[in-house]
Design a protein that fits this description.
Largest sheet: none
Distance between the termini: 63 Å
Shape: elongated
Helix content: over 70%
Low-confidence stretches: none
Number of helices: 5
Radius of gyration: 24 Å
Length: about 160
């Protein structure tokens, strides 16, 4: 009897520790799956958001126009209103997503696979606008999450798959 009690005395804590590790692993996996699901939902939502897609299209058209200087759209005038709104819609969406990615709300590797080129294209197109907004409005943190993510991804580019 005492030998059996002695075995249980050692086995019980070992099994408890194993159970804790199994539960922790399950929680970790569920969290990762939830982040992936949220990321996929976000990407689908962005692609189905007509107003956002229209704004992205307009910003891309503007960036391809020779002599287009995005800084001219910082001023809130009647002539620049619609284009300015398109720029800000794109920037606000990129800032929201970047904050979510950097804070771990979204699955960064998955999001990077889908959005790498798009995010860096928008950063390259709108970087000057952002710098001028910061300077003119004395807002040094404007769109800083977008900048942080773009620079992070530039340092570690998406790997080419063969």
């Amino acid at each position: 009897m005492t030998e059996t009690n002695s075995i249980y005395h050692y086995i019980t804590p070992i099994l408890t520790v194993i159970g804790v590790f199994v539960a922790a692993y399950g929680i970790f996996r569920n969290t990762e799956n939830a982040k992936k699901r949220a990321t996929i939902d976000l990407i689908i939502m962005q692609r189905n958001d007509e107003a956002l897609q229209k704004a992205i299209k307009r910003v891309n058209e503007m960036s391809k126009t020779e002599g287009c200087i995005f800084s001219t759209y910082i001023a809130e005038t009647e002539e620049t209103y619609e284009d300015r709104e398109s720029i800000l819609k794109v920037l606000n969406q990129r800032e929201f997503v970047a904050a979510g990615v950097l804070r771990g709300a979204f699955h960064e590797p998955l999001f990077k696979e889908f959005e790498y080129s798009i995010l860096l294209r928008d950063w390259n197109n709108l970087n000057g606008f952002i710098q001028d907004i910061r300077r003119i409005r004395n807002a040094p943190t404007a769109f800083q999450e977008f900048e942080t993510l773009a620079k992070k991804w530039k340092k570690k580019p998406l790997k080419v798959k063969h």
